[in-house]
Amino acid sequence: MRRMSRPYIAIWGVVVFFFFLNCHKKNPVSNSVEINYTTDGRPALLLVMENNNWLGGGIIETGFEMYRDKVLPIFSELFDVPVEDMQNLTLVEIVDIYGEAWQINEILAIAIPNYENVIVLTDRFARSTLVLDTLAFLCDEGYDIDLMFNMHGDSESIWFADGLVDIQEFTQTMQNENIFIRALYQTMCYGSDMIDEWEDIDIITVNGAKANNSFVIFSPIYFMELWVNGATFKDAVQTAYEMEIEKLESYQSTIPISQFLVTSQIKKNSVQKLGGLDKNLLWVNYPII
């Protein structure tokens, strides 16, 4: 199979065709064995992002409708979109049309200079089968794979574009196909409840929210910026969580953020937990497998 010499991005309407083969890497053995690292790696990033036209309703969407006239100018500046283009859209539509594209572009601006290969799967391409096939392809090509999931989920499953997939089924398929990923950063609700399944396949490091995660706008961008610039995975996750709170609170003078987006309960639910073989993994370190 031909090696790709520059980042290959599959995004929005681009159809990607791969010859997929099983990966021949073997996973690390167990927590009882010390992990050895090298700085000579081939980093690849797979970013999977899909909102599935759903935000869950509740206090956030209620707050948006109450303060629409004040929120839209903030979105306009953030997404670089005229207010008039969003005037008749729901919050879900704004997120799907403009928010996802903005966040993807922000992450790519950081990732592309650092990763040898970057692939984005969103909209109808954010299917579980295509995610697994893409991981298998990257693994077979000899990449050291980092994974970002910005999707909905619950304690037992991930909501891909083709439906809910049980986390145990998903990770077991990865193990059966000898797919190994180095790190997973995820924004899904109850992601911490899935850490055990990721640890079962010897992931080096992974995070997950305690319960319903509301801090998903800026934190993935902050995380990526921090991690590729020298922070440990653990510190990058925690600092990104804190930075999102600070960023949201900066809008308090315009809209009552503390009532809708940064309540004490939302903070508790969105707290990040860590797992894996090495929570202090540095981005420059690649496990010797």
Topology:
Blueprint: E1 37-38, E2 43-50, H1 59-66, H2 68-79, H3 83-86, H4 91-111, E3 117-122, H5 128-140, E4 144-153, E5 157-160, E6 163-166, H6 167-176, E7 183-186, H7 195-200, E8 205-209, H8 219-228, H9 233-249, H10 257-260, H11 264-270, E9 272-275, E10 286-287
Parallel strand pairs: 2-3, 2-4, 4-7, 7-8
Antiparallel strand pairs: 1-10, 4-5, 5-6, 8-9
Helix pairs in contact: 4-8, 8-9
Briefly summarize what is shown:
This protein is an alpha/beta fold and 289 residues long. It is 39% helix and 17% strand.
Description:
The chain is an alpha/beta fold. The protein has a domain at 38-52 and 102-282: Rossmann fold (3-Layer(aba) Sandwich). Helices cover 39% and strands 17% of the residues. It has eleven helices and ten strands. It has helices spanning 59-66, 68-79, 83-86, 91-111, 128-140, 167-176, 195-200, 219-228, 233-249, 257-260, 264-270; strands at residues 37-38, 43-50, 117-122, 144-153, 157-160, 163-166, 183-186, 205-209, 272-275, 286-287. Strands 2, 3, 4, 5, 6, 7, 8 and 9 form an eight-stranded mixed β-sheet that branches. It has a two-stranded antiparallel sheet with strand order 1-10. A hairpin with a 2-residue loop joins strand 5 (157-160) and strand 6. Helix 8 (219-228) packs across helix 9 (233-249). The chain is globular, with a radius of gyration of 19 Å. The two termini are 21 Å apart.
